[in-house]
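Consider the tokenized backbone below.
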């Protein structure tokens, strides 16, 4: 999905679409969109490894406005104790304020902001952690993956536009699965 199309969605449709992306990544969806008294949990899912994912979705047509930390405060206060989350994240078509970004890192909240959302929606780059890894801002992960000198998908698979052509990466196959390849990323 291109960013312009994503930006045109309603808040409810953005939540439904986020749930669909999790389904595409192999999750079972428990809640597709918020309801009365959602306590900051718009989308709830279970990963293939039985880890509970709780996401707060923040969609806006005012792309210059940054996401305020108060939304992360609410999410952090309820996701684990009220919703039993193993993985907590905020999904937005915008960017987070600096204060919100710092809070997310401090409290292990995954940040799926505009650049990360583009990778997830357009290239199928899942942000879901594996092997108990903790939260990382996906806005900085391409540098992390390449500079660390390890396989691109050891933390997150690379978005093709960031691949330097020398590392391993996960390539999508027509049936929806992925295979490991070495060399230039497909464009």
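A designed sequence for it:
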């Amino acid at each position: 999905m291109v960013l312009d199309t994503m930006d045109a969605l309603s808040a409810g449709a953005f939540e439904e679409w986020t749930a669909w992306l999790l389904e595409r990544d192999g999750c079972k969806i428990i809640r597709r969109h918020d309801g009365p008294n959602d306590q900051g949990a718009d989308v709830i899912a279970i990963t293939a490894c039985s880890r509970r994912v709780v996401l707060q979705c923040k969609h806006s047509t005012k792309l210059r406005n940054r996401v305020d930390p108060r939304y992360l405060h609410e999410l952090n206060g309820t996701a684990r104790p009220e919703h039993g989350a193993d993985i907590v994240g905020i999904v937005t078509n915008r960017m987070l304020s600096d204060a919100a970004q710092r809070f997310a890192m401090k409290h292990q909240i995954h940040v799926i902001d505009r650049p990360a959302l583009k990778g997830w929606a357009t290239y199928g780059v899942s942000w879901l952690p594996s092997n108990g890894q903790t939260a990382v801002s996906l806005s900085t992960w391409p540098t992390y993956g390449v500079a660390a000198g390890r396989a691109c998908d050891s933390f997150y698979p690379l978005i093709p536009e960031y691949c330097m052509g020398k590392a391993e990466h996960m390539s999508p196959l027509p049936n929806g699965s992925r295979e490991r390849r070495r060399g230039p990323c497909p464009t």
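The longest strand covers residues 52-58.
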